[in-house]
Amino acid sequence: MNNLREFIFLTEPNIILVVMGTLILCGMAALVGCFTFLRKRALVGDAVSHSVLPGVCLAFILTGEKNPLYFLIGAIITGLASLVIMEWLGRNNKTRPDTAIALLLSVFFGLGIVLLTSIQHSGNAGQAGLDKFLFGKAASITKDDVLLFAISSIFIVGGIIVFLRGFTVLSFDENYAQSIGFPVKRLRFILAFITVWSVAIGIQAVGVVLMAALLITPALAARMWTDSIIKMLIIAVFIGLLSGYTGAFISYTAPAMPTGPWIVVMATFMAIISMVFAPKRGYLNRWRETRNNNRITLEENILKLFYGLGEKTGNPNGAIIKEDLNNARSFDPSQLSKGLKILQKKGYVNDVLQTWQLTPEGLIAAQRVVRLHRLWELYLQKYLHLNPDHVHDDAEAMEHVITPEIEAQLDALLGNPQTDPHNTKIPPAI
Amino acid sequence: MIIQTENPSIEAHNLTVIYHRKPVLWNIDFTLPKGQIIGIMGPNGAGKSSLIKAILGLVPVNSGYAKIFGKSFDEVRQKVSYIPQRQTVDWDFPATVQDVVLMGRYQQRGLFGKITQEDKVLAASALEKVNLGGFVNRQISQLSGGQQQRVFIARALAQQAELYLLDEPFVGVDAATEQAIIALLQQMKSEGKTIVVVHHDLHTAKEYFDWLVLLNASLIASGPTSEVFTEELLKSTYSGKLTVLSQVGDQLRERNFPVREA
């Protein structure tokens, strides 16, 4: 509990450092990751993340110091080198992108591991803790680190804001961007540089292995909530910050836990929540819509059945024996009784002894459905030149979505018709 | 048959484009008139899209050059509008119809210039012209294929160019939209604009275009539709595979030979 309080109120200077550092890293990664995501270059992001490891190791070997600035420079150099080779392979050697990505990811990461291992066996006392770059260790973030992150974030956020228009058109339609004279090559390079930069600082908290998840997951989650690119950037940063905060907390309270995996777990958790609960794009909403549509279809089909049977007997709201209902149309029995229950609750049908009866409200509703169905059949026949014996199935699905406005248009277009293609009467509008 | 024209809109001089040692465009040399609707036609893989891209400098040109209104594309960029194939972009991108059409104003405004009220008015009137007036705030992921194509055309209109290059605008578009687009192109022509369309449907070519360019890696014909749209020329475009050229191309690739002498 004490831990929690210390963490939330940032009472310990050390915690302030860790929290600030992690938040900056995660926010930056989420921000630039939106463009990685929108340009469909998630795998490239993964390869670049792995490719910064040899740079970090080389920086240590060459300088013998654990200076965050040297690490950053080394990481950016090998990260960019791998990107450049990737592009060159694709352009000049007909290497497929997936091949180039997999190749460079493994080669650079392998090289990084070789260097890391040789450093660890070199007997250099200063090497302790370098392995944090594999899975990240927020707890080891120092004051110098945070200063470097803060300066980096100014350039990264500034770059994104200044070049937002360029990056957006580049991501949406690169050919067009070039045709209107945008400096596409330079924009691509600036974006790549900013991305590698944020990766190079991000590995402090998350590690090279999981860095791609921190780039992509917040963007993926943010995309679920909005259709505006600016809102998407803001939401992604927010999700990145939240994952960073919770991840750092867990890693701080349980020191044996590496930070990176926890941050990624939290980000993934938020992505799942977004996919399920987001309005419009979320699964829950889609599932609810499907359920509603099925219910409306069922209700209206039963109402139509009542009306049809009523037409046959000449008594529209007469009682219908349950047996007849079952035989008249191929309803699943459980669906039929479910639909009848809903209609009964709505006051559209009454259960009277062995029969079902339409109420006056039910009759009005039934008339409307039948009217729409028959109007639509007529429209299909007249304007789409379908045969009368073909229009029924098409009308079945459409009748449930016709709004009163469309109904009025149909009626006017068809000249207020009285009968449908099968020569049955179209009930009047109510 | 290659008919030249005075004071051309586009002039290509020995234009050659090679992808991975395969000649895609071979010594294209033509002049296209101004103020007409020009169709670029040829079989699949004939280099139709590459020709447009080469004119606009979107693909590297191996030799030769293209001029627009007598100048290099860079000098007259303001007067040229490009409409890429609509399948080349991801329509699930987080943007509204207005966002996309306003991209047409970025040529004027550049990377950093402010988008003004005037730009928004221009974008709105471009949308009116393609009958998408009510779609300003619509999400582009909700558009049908025909509507997507019209949004692209609106974006081009917002550029207020003189020359329009459309890459396969009728692919995956319903008949009504195709008619609406053609009517719009006719209207633009009557305002003195030049329109170049990459097209592959022979049935409609005669009706749509004033001038035809027949292409199959090399230039088969260029001239007024009435003179170029002949059985003989179409046959040599569509069935006459340029076997010798492609054989030479195969040889080059196999032996890793440079296409042009060093």
SSE order and pairing:
The complex is a heterodimer of chains A (430) and B (262).
Chain A: H1 2-9, H2 13-38, H3 42-63, H4 68-92, H5 97-120, H6 132-135, H7 143-162, H8 164-172, H9 174-179, H10 184-206, H11 211-225, H12 229-253, H13 259-277, H14 283-313, E1 320-321, H15 322-328, H16 333-346, E2 349-352, E3 355-358, H17 360-383, H18 391-398, H19 404-413
Antiparallel strand pairs in A: 1-3, 2-3
Chain B: E1 10-19, E2 22-32, E3 37-41, H1 48-55, E4 63-68, H2 73-76, E5 80-83, H3 97-102, H4 106-109, H5 117-129, H6 145-158, E6 163-167, H7 175-190, E7 194-198, H8 202-208, E8 211-216, E9 218-224, H9 225-228, H10 231-238, H11 243-254
Parallel strand pairs in B: 3-7, 3-8, 5-6, 6-7
Antiparallel strand pairs in B: 1-2, 1-4, 8-9
Helix pairs in contact in B: 5-6
Structure description:
The complex is a heterodimer of chains A (430) and B (262). Chain A is mainly α and 430 residues long. Chain A is built from 19 helices and three strands. Chain A has helices spanning 2-9, 13-38, 42-63, 68-92, 97-120, 132-135, 143-162, 164-172, 174-179, 184-206, 211-225, 229-253, 259-277, 283-313, 322-328, 333-346, 360-383, 391-398, 404-413; strands at residues 320-321, 349-352, 355-358. In chain A, a hairpin with a 2-residue loop joins strand 2 (349-352) and strand 3 (355-358). Chain B has a single domain, classed as P-loop containing nucleotide triphosphate hydrolases (Rossmann fold, 3-Layer(aba) Sandwich), CATH 3.40.50. Chain B has eleven helices and nine strands. Chain B has helices at residues 48-55, 73-76, 97-102, 106-109, 117-129, 145-158, 175-190, 202-208, 225-228, 231-238, 243-254; strands spanning 10-19, 22-32, 37-41, 63-68, 80-83, 163-167, 194-198, 211-216, 218-224. Chain B has a six-stranded mixed β-sheet, with helices on both faces. Chain B has a three-stranded antiparallel β-sheet with strand order 2-1-4. In chain B, helix 7 (175-190) links the parallel strand 6 (163-167) and strand 7. In chain B, helix 5 (117-129) crosses helix 6 (145-158). The model of chain B has no long low-confidence stretch (mean pLDDT 89). Classes of the chains: A mainly alpha (430), B alpha/beta (262). The A-B interface holds A 38, 40, 94, 162-163, 165-166, 168-169, 171-173, 175-176, 178-183, 223, 226-229, 232 and B 20, 53, 56-58, 74, 77, 80-82, 84, 88-90, 93-96, 99-100, 103, 106-107, 111-112, 139, 141, 155, 159.
